């Protein structure tokens, strides 16, 4: 008889606090993120989401508490943490003077990877940017820049990726593209911590959702678990207005539609 061993959390946060003088941004934040999952940190502007990401990515030091990424303490082993992660901020960190491929090659060289050109070509294809790869990034749309930005963050195959408000300012089509990219990352085994203020984004993407409010986690669970926090839904009857199609069919009937098709055939 074998006993299943639960994998250690990819991210563990315990009692994290951070203040700026009299402004208490984080006040004892606790959560864990399972490996290969999508975890959404949901909150309004100023809730402390970006501050939490900066602490986890070693860009900021917490005042109290502890945090670990891939088993490495963010305060004691920052270099190990940085080797395990990648961070995509709210605004695309791409060089507009360079082409898309040149941006990717630059990062691949900085990470001392073999054959940076091949790495770049592979990512351009993966993110549907091959045709635009030779163009300067200044000519890219917002969605293309965001795709390139995420592609750059994947160079070196990080095990954990932080996406801080990844769809801010994008049009609906570009948002859907980013959503698909995030889902694909998780399918490939990458752990994703996503910060967002968009409820639909968290609902569509996340395996677990934590709601950060006034520096504290006030709820944490799956979407189904969070729904249980509210009273059962009441059934209400709402008058449904007919569509134009329904009105048309009610007036002419299906036989009228068939007759119109037959007339069209005869004329042709």
Sheet-strand content, in percent, reads 15-25%
The name of the CATH architecture of the domain at 11-94 and 160-258 is 3-Layer(aba) Sandwich
> Percent helix among the residues?
25-40%
Tell me, briefly, the overall form.
Answer: globular
Structural class: alpha/beta
Task: Specify Rg, calculated over alpha carbons.
Answer: 24 Å
What's the CATH H-level superfamily name of the domain at 11-94 and 160-258?
Answer: P-loop containing nucleotide triphosphate hydrolases
CA(first)-CA(last) distance: 74 Å
Mean pLDDT, as a whole number? 87
Annotation field: number of helices: 9
**CATH fold title of the domain at 11-94 and 160-258:** Rossmann fold
Instruction: Write down how many β-strands occur, each being a DSSP E stretch of 2 or more residues.
Output: 10
Please write the string of helix (H) and strand (E) elements: EEEHEEHEHHHEHEHEEHH
The largest beta-sheet arranges its strands as 6-7-8-3-9-10
CATH secondary-structure class of the domain at 11-94 and 160-258: Alpha Beta
Mind describing the biggest β-sheet? 6 strands, mixed
Uncertain runs are: 260-265
């Amino acid at each position: 008889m074998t006993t299943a061993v639960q994998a250690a959390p990819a991210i563990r946060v315990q009692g994290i606090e951070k203040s700026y003088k009299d402004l208490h941004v984080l006040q004892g934040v606790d959560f864990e993120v399972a490996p290969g999952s999508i975890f959404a940190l949901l909150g309004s502007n100023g809730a402390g989401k970006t501050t939490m990401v900066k602490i986890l990515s070693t860009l900021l030091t917490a005042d109290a508490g502890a945090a670990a990424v891939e088993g490495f303490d963010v305060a004691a082993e920052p270099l190990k943490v940085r080797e395990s992660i990648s961070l995509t901020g709210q605004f695309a960190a791409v060089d507009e003077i360079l082409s898309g491929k040149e941006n990717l090659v630059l990062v691949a060289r900085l990470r001392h990877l073999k054959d940076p050109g091949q790495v770049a070509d592979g990512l351009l294809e993966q993110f549907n940017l091959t045709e635009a790869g030779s163009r300067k990034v200044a000519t890219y749309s917002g969605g293309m820049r965001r795709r390139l930005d995420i592609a750059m963050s994947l160079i070196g195959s990080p095990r954990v990726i932080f996406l801080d408000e990844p769809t801010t300012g994008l049009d609906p089509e570009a948002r859907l593209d980013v959503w698909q990219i995030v889902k694909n990352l998780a399918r490939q085994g990458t752990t994703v911590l996503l910060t967002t203020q968009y409820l639909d984004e968290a609902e569509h993407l996340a395996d677990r959702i934590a709601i950060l409010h006034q520096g504290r986690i006030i709820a944490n669970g799956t979407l189904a678990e969070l729904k249980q926090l509210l009273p059962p839904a009441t059934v209400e009857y709402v008058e449904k207005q007919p569509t134009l199609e329904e009105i048309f069919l009610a007036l002419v009937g299906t036989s009228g539609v068939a007759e119109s098709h037959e007339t069209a055939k005869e004329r042709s």
